[in-house]
Input
Amino acid sequence: MEAGIVGLPNVGKSTLFNALTASQAAQSANYPFCTIEPNEGIVSVPDDRLQTIAQFIVPQKVVPAVLKLVDIAGIVKGASEGQGLGNKFLSHIRQVDAIIQVVRCFQDDDVIHVDGRVDPVADMETIEAELMLADIETLQTALPKAERAARGGDKEAKLRVAAIQGCLERLSHDAPLRGLQLDEPQAKAIQSFGLMSAKPILYLANVDEDDLSGEAVSARSARDYAQQRGTDIVPVCAKLEAEIAELDEPDRTEFLQSVGLREPALNHVARAAYSTLGLQSFFTAGEQEVRAWTIRKGATAPEAAGVIHSDMQRGFIRAEVYTLLDLEMYKSEKEIREAGKLRVEGKAYVVQDGDICHFRFSV
Output
């Protein structure tokens, strides 16, 4: 699972990407399209629960969950028609699972806005419109072929036609596809299209250094826009976060305290992106390592076991599960077991966020 970082040119998304991935790439010139090929990076997902587990089950190492981020070049109005190398950039968005849009809410005369003004809502609407227009083109191109196949009796093609028509109807009302509910067969029939306005989206409001909580007019307008559409938005100052990312741990802690932050805002960004992708963590704990594993929400115990190793899913017998609250109460896995709090779950069990698991299997 991966998320693509998008935005208009010069909104600070590459700065945020570099800070998130602790990249030391040389700073690019202040010109649109300085990012052409997408950069990729792996980001740890901060989780205080790992350290709590490690207090009771002391490991040799602690391994957090990670997610993959892709820094995609700036999009401009008309991208769906090829403006600004738009088709190339939009194809990169088609390949990711979720979208993180960086929205400019800061003022800086030295950083040129592609439209000559700072208007975050207009920027959000521009990106949304380009994604929807690109989806319309994709669907209209696919429809005649699907209709011909449907007339020939192809059952999957009939599902595809119905799904395409439903999508086009929604898009005709200027509504993105992420709010459209298709039944599973129809959704599967158009899955290969990579429809962009159907992807979950997270907004990052890139704010000024003196507005870290995002209370300025521009940031509030962006927040209102996101909330009206049922999406999350995180205020973050890219410039400040880039400085924080370069500091050693002691200096970082002191710097955070000086600006009134408990942790880098990028920690919140990583967790919000993880959630936007529909992901959650379960843990394994032992003397070798305490580790967070990534699964989609709703995954069953065998599916979770398969994240560790395919043999564990293939030969799944049962899962032995307890919670962090159990560990905090009984202090050790041995005491949890003796207190009868270690649950034994079968193949139908849906793993919950924060479960601590052992999997029994035989191949």
